Amino acid sequence: MRPGFLLGEIANGLRRNASMVVSVVLVTMVSLFFLGIGLLAQAQVSTAKGFWYDRVQVSIFLCTPDATEVASCSEGAVTPEQREQIAADLESLDPLVTEYFYESNEEAYERFREQFRNSPVLDSIPQEAIPESYRVNLSDPTRYEVIRAAFEQAPGVESVEDQREVVDKLFTFLGVLSVGALALAVAMVVCAVLLISTTIRLTAWSRRRETAIKRMVGASAFSIHLPFILETVIATVAGAGLAVALLWATVRYGITGFLSELLAGESGLISLVGPRDLWLITPFLVGGALLLAVVTAWLALHRHVRV
Amino acid sequence: MITLENVSLRYAKGDPWALREVDLDVTRGEFCFVVGQSGSGKSSLLRLINLEQEPTGGRVLVAGHDLGELPHRRVHLLRRQIGVVFQDFRLLSGRTVAQNVAYVLQVLGAGRHEIRQRVPETLALVGLQDKGRRLPHELSGGEQQRVAIARAMVNKPPILLADEPTGNLDPDTSSEIVAILDRINRAGTTVVMATHDTTIVDQFRKRVVQLHQGRVVRDQAEGGYREVAL
Predict the structure, then answer these.
(1) Which residues of B27-55 are buried (b: 16+ CB within 10 A; e: fewer)?
(2) Which stretches of B122-206 are assigned E, i.e. beta strand?
(3) Rounded Cα gap, residues A189 and A28, in angstroms
(4) Alpha-carbon gap, residue A86 to A186, rounded angstroms
(5) Collapsing DSSP states into helix, strand and coil, what is residue B32?
(6) Edge-to-edge strand order for the sheet containing B159-163?
(7) Is the Cβ of A212 closer than 8 Å to some Cβ of chain B?
(8) CB contact, 8 Å: A2 with chain B?
(9) Rounded distance between C-alpha atoms, residue A109 and residue A23, angstroms
(10) Chain B partners of A1 at a C-beta cutoff of 8 Å?
């Protein structure tokens, strides 16, 4: 079969089955979009985890003037001596403590104001209520208990918090989102497979006379199947292209644009997935879709087209 | 060219035999009518030759191929050596006469130059040189059957199978169609035609193979339709 004739056959087939082809394109697009969202959510979890775990791991909040109900704060706000003692203790915990930063009450209050700039509670919280703190990085984040045991009851320390517990809630949410999107993607992929199979069956029926003639005059099984397979591939590639475009728009305008602007005040607190993560998963999305389309089409042809 | 050795066929276990212990040898360049009542096994015989159907028992040899030994992936090579014509023409309704004939060559990968040369040549063979641009529904039944013959012959196969090609046609048109087949046969093509058209068989006086309930009951050179009363 010559390429010109093959292209003509394909164009003819696509035109005659336009509505079915459009449905394959749309179902492929939706299924790959959900698959992409699921994969990007997973990428977000691992990106953010790495980012957070590399940064703030443990916060040692120091006593505020009002925290007298805590035993170690019974003398009121932390004193400069207590603060220095804590810093010295942190130094002595090297190499478990790789780094620590001091955040003053002014810095903490400034960050708090930025974080809650749209909240009505902002004015009701006095600056003294926001604790100064030490932010501690550990060489092994799982050994948080060592830090807690060393500082929880120490004079001038109000509380010790493992920040991972806080961010882990976010990661759990992202994980649920990812699993949900992937489950939807699986359902949509099943739809796509069934739809491709049905489309092939209907196309084979509408072209049964041409197929019978091809068989009769001695066309090989491959050349009879090829136009069907290529039509499916074209519809799938179109669907995959639209899905990638939609994912790109979501990442570009939804995450890199909107979400990162929303979180601008938190700059440095979270790293978001970007177009680069999308380009990394794109070959798998498109390649997987193509493989699935070809295998489904091939199986459907063996079932519905006699050669 | 075509040999059947002790061939039997039934479509499903428990069904009556469509063909029973058939021995037949059609030599190169021969014209052979296969006659018999409806259900006598004529079409089944043609289906075996074209490997549309495998026999339940026996051996079929066509154009040098032992069909029982022919791997599935090589069946299309056998079919390139066989042209087939049906009672219901089976033309592609959206394509012109010339496009219907050219379709075969396109499917088999012929070049544009070859197609431009062979299609008019073959249409001339069946007397339709002026009707290449017509659509099938604009033609009479006889003309549509001529298109079907042109399509079967455009690839110049050495064997032509015709399954009741005159079944939908009036006597005069039937005669014209068989005259075309006869002309094709005289040019060297082996023709096997299944028919129950008494007039045609009596008129052309070719070899007649008569089937009755799947068995060959007569094989006669230059025979008529009813040489033996059944």
Answers:
(1) eeebbbbbbbeeebbbbbbbbbbbbbbeb
(2) 159-163, 190-195
(3) 7
(4) 53
(5) strand
(6) B82-86, B159-163, B190-195, B31-35, B207-212, B215-220
(7) yes
(8) yes
(9) 55
(10) 106-109
Cβ pair B106:A2 closer than 8 A: yes
Residue B43 dihedral angles phi and psi, to the nearest 5°: -65, -35
Query: pLDDT category, A270, cuts 50, 70, 90?
Result: low
Q: What is the pLDDT of residues A116-138, one digit of tens each?
A: 666 666 777 788 888 888 888 88
Count CB atoms within 10 A of the CB of residue A76. 13
| Cis before B158 (ω within 30) | no
Count, residues in chain A = 307
Q: What is the mean pLDDT of chain B?
A: 92
pLDDT surpasses 50 at B26: yes
Q: In B, residues 119-158, which contact A (CB 8 Å cutoff)?
A: 151, 155
Q: Read off the pTM.
A: 0.72
Helix, strand, coil shares of chain B, percent, nearest 5, are 35, 25, 40
Q: Which residues contact A98 (CB under 8 A, 6 or more apart)?
A: A137, A138, A139
Nearest CA distance, B223 vs chain A (angstrom): 30
> Across residues A43-56, what is the average pLDDT?
68
Average pLDDT over residues B65-94: 91
Q: How far apart are CA B161 and CA B62, in angstroms?
A: 12
Residue-wise DSSP of A29-90: HHHHHHHHHHHHHHHHHHHHHHHHHHS--EEEEEPPTT-TTSGGGTTSSPPHHHHHHHHHHH
User: Which tokens hold the place of A252?
Assistant: 């570009």
Task: Examine the predicted complex and report whether its ipTM is higher than 0.95.
Answer: no
**CA B192 to chain CA mean position, Å:** 6
Encoding tokens for residue B7? Answer: 């061939």
Reading the block at residue B103, the tokens are 């379709």
Domains annotated on chain A, with CATH: 3-53+168-304 (no CATH), 56-163 (3.30.70.3040)
Contact of A247 with A234, CB cutoff 8 Å: no
- The predicted-structure confidence for B86-125, as pLDDT tens digits, reads as follows 999 999 998 999 999 999 999 998 889 999 999 999 999 9
